[in-house]
Design a protein that fits this description.
Largest sheet of chain B: 9 strands, mixed
Shape of chain B: globular
Number of helices of chain B: 6
Number of domains of chain A: 2
Number of helices of chain A: 8
CATH architecture of the largest domain in chain A: 3-Layer(aba) Sandwich
Order of helices and strands of chain A: EEEHEEHEHEEEEEEEHEHEHEHEH
Strand order of the largest sheet of chain A: 7-10-6-1-4-5-11
Strand content of chain A: 25-35%
Number of strands of chain B: 15
Bound molecules: flavin-adenine dinucleotide, adenosine monophosphate
CATH topology of the largest domain in chain A: Rossmann fold
Number of strands of chain A: 17
Shape of chain A: globular
Oligomer: heterodimer
Largest interface: A-B, 95 and 81 residues
Chain lengths: 322, 248
């Protein structure tokens, strides 16, 4: 019996989140005296997973799966879990993983816990710690079914190397017509930009930036840090920035290493969604802005003066530390 | 077209989150409950289908009597009928089982749920429901058009968008974008009066067992003081980020 981990690829390359879920699965395997089996679709080099504690890769090479389809992918994972007799399955919380996990749960009649932030406690039942109330609290949840699915929050466990001999086996699942009800017509993805979900650093702008014409401040800083750009809710409501950039309780969650907030007041709904980030920096000209209570570092000052200076200094720093 | 909108009754986004009974229960004391924001976007899109394409709109919630003001609000916004499945929501699997039963019996063409509830952030009910029903499913849906039996939708992916096509019946996990913030409606007096006369059917739960149990809650450790850096001394911030926080 092994732990099954879904290792996502993008254009053939594993995402960082895949190495994180593999590392996490390996830690569970060590606790429970078992091994990690990964399932990977159309990966260039499946053996890369051996570095993160995976013993066996079920590799699917199938043109039909070139475009993500949640139902078909759930069917692939279902078949893999059954074949390998896996009763613990670990996935990331990427948009695609979150899309397929509930389908997989029904296929396998499994309990699914999302937003998990720590290793399960398996001594007495199977307890996981997850976030609830949009990062305002934690919740210890027991999964009571035989088969268990864990959605691991991004950046909550980290990537840990653990080199193993890895066996690659070709896996040819049956993909029924039934699972192809929804078809992808087109994908519109900005390839030169880091997405909020994959970013190590996010630079976010609020209403304090006055208008969309000033967003080069945010973008230049983000470019310097190889960061994703984000914004507060009113900024996307007013159409200054696309909806996809709205972060917070009702927007995208952010759990990065570094979150820089520029001209954002720090309303409770904003903070809830970004609180899981490790280091928070705020730049705001109002020393009373609530964000200062939630941040690790802050500069009280005018964004229009501070941000260009910070960008310049960071460029110098990067050049000296390259 | 028959639409069912699934409404989750959640604490207002500004609520202070506290727990009682040895940190095993959410403390509802003084908490204002609202329609889950993702569901409100979905409900408003459903009203658009009602007005422009002659759809009928029912709303359903799995919850005890205390959830009734929340579904009455959905009726006041313009839904035709409300269904309350009379049991406490305990986990996503159980809620999906209850809703799937109601959805099947009502022969709905389109079932609109939210991407996630802002209380437990499960992000699972709509997908589970779709699978139980054998219907198509589109998550993180930010645009939905229906033409006859065909649905065209846009879903948010990490770093972009995807356009999808499928047939009805369909379940979506919706969010902001389905309609704009400015399209959301505050119920007016007439809506509130009419809502009192609209049917609120209470149905018995099938009472399926749960697959997960929330045992205990805790709150994050309080944050230390912010370190302020002078605007004239940005090098200090870079030094702190590099050497102390190890964030760059
Ligand atoms: C149901 C609901 C859900 C919500 N969900 C979210 C959510 O998910 N995400 C979210 O972000 N919000 C959300 N909100 C909105 C939230 O309550 C706040 O209104 C919003 O976060 C404020 O955005 P802001 O900080 O950009 O703007 P403001 O509150 O207007 O703050 C602007 C800040 O910029 C500062 N500033 C002004 N000029 C400068 C300058 N020159 N230099 C530096 N700083 C300057 C000001 O001091 C101020 O602090 C939600 C609200 C509701 C009711
Ligand atoms: N108790 C409930 N009653 C009705 N619908 C619900 C309930 N819980 C969740 N939902 C629906 O499922 C969506 C996702 O919820 P969740 O999976 O709990 O995050 C919500 O936005 C609602 O549309």
């Amino acid at each position: 019996m092994s732990i099954l981990v879904y290792t996502e690829t993008e254009n053939g390359k594993f995402k960082k989140a895949s190495f994180e879920v593999a590392s996490y699965a390996k830690a569970i395997a060590d606790k429970t005296d078992s091994k990690v089996t990964a399932i990977a679709v159309n990966a260039d080099d499946p053996s890369e997973l051996g570095k993160y504690g995976v013993s066996k890769v079920l590799h699917v090479n199938n043109e039909e799966l070139a475009k993500f389809n949640a139902d078909s992918y759930a069917a692939v994972l279902t078949e893999a879990a059954k074949q390998e007799l896996c009763n613990t399955i670990v996935l990331s919380q990427s948009a695609n993983a979150k899309y397929l996990a509930p389908l997989l749960a029904v296929n396998l009649e499994a309990g699914y816990a999302s937003n998990v932030v720590d290793l399960p406690i398996t001594e007495n039942g199977f307890m996981v710690k997850r976030t609830a109330f949009t990062n305002k609290a934690f919740n210890e949840t027991e999964i009571t079914t035989d088969t268990k699915i864990i959605g691991l929050s991004t950046n909550s466990f980290g990537v840990h190397e653990n080199s193993l001999e890895v066996e690659i086996s070709n896996f040819e699942p049956t993909i029924s017509e039934e699972s192809k009800k929804v078809t992808v017509e087109s994908v519109d993805k900005n390839k030169d930009k880091v997405s909020i979900a994959d970013a190590e650093v996010v630079v976010s702008g609020g209403r304090g930036l006055k208008g969309p014409e000033n967003w080069h401040l945010v973008e230049n800083l983000a470019d310097t840090l190889n960061a994703a750009t984000a914004c507060s809710k009113p900024v996307s409501d007013m159409g200054w920035r696309p909806h996809g950039e709205h972060v917070g309780q009702t927007g995208k969650p952010v759990a990065t290493n570094l979150y820089i907030a520029i001209g954002i007041s720090g309303a409770i709904q904003h903070l809830a969604g970004i609180n899981a980030s490790k280091t928070k920096v705020v730049i705001n000209n109002d020393p009373e802005a609530p964000f200062f209570k939630a941040a690790d570092y802050g500069i009280v000052g005018d964004a229009f003066e501070v941000v260009p200076k910070l960008t310049e200094k960071l460029k110098e720093f990067k050049a000296n530390n390259a | 077209m028959k639409i069912l909108v699934c409404i989750s009754h959640v604490p207002d986004t500004t609520s202070k989150i506290n727990f009682t009974e040895g940190d095993t229960k959410f403390d509802t004391n003084g908490v204002q409950f609202i329609i889950n924001p993702n569901d409100e976007f979905g409900l408003t899109r459903a009203m658009w289908f009602k007005e422009k394409q002659g759809a009928s709109v029912d709303v359903a919630t799995v919850g005890l009597k205390d959830t009734e003001p929340t579904i009455r609000k959905a009726l006041a916004i313009g839904a035709d009928n409300a269904i309350r499945i009379d049991t406490a929501p305990l986990d996503g699997y159980q809620v999906a089982t209850e809703l799937a039963k109601v959805a099947k019996e009502g022969e709905y063409d389109l079932i609109i749920a939210g991407r996630e509830s802002i209380d437990y952030n499960g992000g699972m009910v709509p997908g589970m429901m779709a699978k139980m029903l054998g219907y198509g499913f589109i998550n993180t849906c930010v645009s939905l058009e229906i033409d006859g039996n065909t649905a065209t939708a846009i879903r948010e992916i990490d770093g972009g968008k995807e356009t999808l096509k499928t047939n009805l019946p369909l379940v979506i996990g919706g969010q902001k974008g389905l309609v704009e913030e400015s399209d959301l409606k505050i119920p007016n007096m007439r809506g509130i009066m009419m809502a009192r006369k609209k049917p609120l059917n209470v149905v018995e739960a099938v009472g399926d067992k749960v697959s997960t149990e929330a045992k205990k809650f805790s709150k994050p450790a309080p944050k230390g003081e912010v370190k302020l850096v002078d605007a004239e001394n940005i090098d200090e911030l870079i030094d702190l980020l590099h050497n102390e926080a190890k964030a760059i």
